[in-house]
Structures are given as C-alpha cells and as structure tokens.
Amino acid sequence: MWELIRVNKRNSVILLAAMGSVLLLLGFTLGYLFGGAPQAGWFGMLIAAGIWLFMMLISLSSGDQILLSSAKAVPVTADVHPMLFNVVEEMTLAANLPKTPKVYIINDPAPNAFAAGRSPDSASIAVTAGLLGKLNRDELQGVVAHEMSHIIHRDILFVTLAGVMLGSIVLISEIFLRSMFYSSLGSRRRYSSRSSNEGLAQIVMIVVAVLFAILAPIFAQLLYFALSRKREYLADAGGARLTRYPEGLASALEKIAGSTVTMETANKVTAPMYIANPFRGPKAMHLYGTHPPIEERIRILRNMSHGAGYINYEKSYEEVTKRSPVVPASALKEEEVAIRQGAAPSKPEQTTRQQARQVGDLMRTVSAFAFLACGGCGLKMKIPPNYKGAAVSCPRCGQKSTLPQ
Question: Quick one: how far is CA 276 from the chain centroid?
Fold first, then answer.
C-alpha cells in the first residue's frame, strides 16, 4: 500500500497549506475590521501566521495527546482488560508494525474506537468501555485491525494534523463572534458619530467579517471530511485482510450501528477519527457525515465470500456500490487471502443487563474505583477513589470491611 501511504503524506501537506490559508484570511479580515485599515489587516495576518506555525508545531509534536485528552481517553495496563491487550499485540504482529500501539480506554458507554498518532512508532488505539462490553473476541479483533490499518496507511498523521488545525480555526472564529456580540453596543455608538459613507463601509466590512468567521470553520471542516470516507473503506479492507475474517468486523459494525447510546465524549473535531459516526440524530446525516453509510460497509464485508484480501474487497466493493475502484492498483497484485473460520464462543451471549453491568464495572475500573467483596455476604462493593474512610459497611448485611492500603 505504498501508493496510499504516499498519497496520505501528500494530503497532509495539502491540508496544512489549505487550513493555513483559511487561518491567514481569517486573520487579515479580523485585523482589518478591528484596525479599520489595510495595515491592520496585514498585522492580523501576521498574528494568524504565528498561530498557524505554533499550532502546526503542536500538531506534529503532541497533537495525538491533545486529541486523546479531548476524547477523555485514559491509558490503561493489561490487567484492566487482558483480552484487549492480547488482541492489540496479536494485530501488531499481523500488521508487522515496529512497535505495539499504546492502549487507551474511553470512559463512555457508547461503542466506538479510534487510532491517533504521527507514525507507527508513536501510535495509540483508544476504545470505549461500551465497545468492550458489547463485542466478542472476533469482533474486537476486527475493530482493532481496522484501526491498525489506519496506522499502516498513515491516516493517523492526516487526522491528527487536521483535528488540531480545525480546532484552532473553530476556536479563533468563536472568540471573534463572541467579542463581536459583546462589543456591538460600543460599535453602534462609534459608527453614529461618523459620516454615513464611512459608517456604511464599516457595516459592510463587519457583515463580511462575520460571514467569514462563520464560514471559515465550515470550509475547514468540509475539507477535513472530504477525504475521510475513502479512508474508512480502505481501513475496512485492511482490517478484513489482517484478521482473515471479514464477518468479525461486519458484526462489530452492526453492533455499533445498533447502539442507541449517545456518545458524550465525542465532538465535531474528533468525530472523523472514530470507526463509526459517534453522533446520533440530525448530527449523523450522511450529507455532512465523516463516514460512509455503515450499512453499506457491512454489506461489502459480508459479500467477501471468496477471500479476505484487498482484491476480494475491491470486487465486493464494486458489486455492492457500483462505483469506481477504491483500493490502489498496487495493492491488487497481492495473492488472495483465505478466509478463516470464526472462533467458537467461549461463553454464552450476555444479556443487555449483563452487558450494562460489565460496562459499568469497566468504567469504574478506568476511573480508579476499588472493588471489595464483603466477607459476610459476598456482595461486590465499588468504592470511589475519593472515599476517605479506612473501612466500609456492607449495604446488604452491615458487616464492616477494611479497605486495602
């Protein structure tokens, strides 16, 4: 997939240049508005250039950590969820990555996942507690393999840069619009003392500036979204190839799509990073969505009946969508990959109530709760991290238990 990696690196440079241009134009417009002269506009552009350079350096040095923090992802160790770590290590070997990605869990009951980082050497994979509570091992493997494919294809560099740059443009626009709101009364007084022509010119400039401040983040976000759909198809293809079991990823996507839980930790900047659109309702409209229709992705994966390689995905993609090829020609020359059998279920399917309990316990573990079994009745007590006492009374039988130090 060297062709795809080269294209993603090129797109990252184009993205930086395009978002930098938007930021410079925004800086010039705001400078001209507040200064009332072209010289002030150039000064505003100079400030915007400094912001762009600073944000670019931040994106390249620690953009992944900013996005992980924005998603409220918490780094965890293998003892929190051994199966997750085992699957990540397994897919790292299958993908031939130089280093195992760091593992994060997002304290959110909605099922979803994403990858972040600048390169395979500094990659991270974050999954929600809701995802771990809903998926079996084959399904979890499919999701992790999908995120591994984003890492292999260097999608994570593009998304990390885009997320931080888009966030800066949105932030500057919101600051400007808020300042316009609070200073509107003073502006009206100032314009009333000028000639009618000067006042009209200033009003026109204000309208143009406000429109630009509103449209700049929308334009930047559309640029961000424009390249995301194809990447999701290719990550699905890579995930099926790594696991040799397309049904695992298809089943996982089906469970994610079937969830009615709203994802509270996602926002419009981080949304394109997730394996599936994290929003529900009007926000999830396909027209402005960051992902292809999930039902279509599932149909493509389940139509891969003759193999799990890129060439098999391409044939299935063309049959289902009736669109032009999505997989680069260089990847279609590989040998076909045989589909393996799914693993036998190791335990009965959990009920909705059992899944909710498991997700709740996992979220408490991530939040540093202590779990203590009552010595009298065996009740499992969940002790919050801010509990100050040395002992706790069982709410069922009243026996006191000493907290471990």
Answer: 9
147 is catalytic: yes
Distance (Å) of CA 176 to CA 29, 33, 34, 277? 11, 11, 10, 29
What is the pLDDT, as a whole number, of residue 342? 87
- Antiparallel, parallel or unpaired: β 102-106 and 124-128: parallel
> Which of 89, 90, 139, 147 is the catalytic position?
147
Contact at 8 Å (CB) between 309 and 300? no
Helices marked H in 244-284: 246-258
Output the pTM of the full model: 0.80
The tokens 């390689």 sit on which residue? Answer: 309
- C-alpha 355/C-alpha 351 separation (Å) is 6
Which residue type sits at 201? A
Question: What are 200's two structure tokens?
Answer: 């009209």
Backbone torsions φ then ψ of 64, nearest 5 degrees: -65, -40
pLDDT digit string (tens) for 224-278?
A: 665 567 889 999 999 999 999 999 999 999 999 999 888 989 887 788 889 998 9
CA distances for 198 relative to 126, 183, 211, angstroms: 55, 19, 20
Cα 341 from Cα 235, distance rounded (Å): 21
Residues 366/105, Cβ–Cβ less than 8 Å: yes
CA 41 to CA 400: how far, in whole Å?
70
Residue pLDDT, tens place only, 170-227 = 777 777 667 666 655 455 545 454 556 555 656 666 676 677 667 767 766 666 665 5
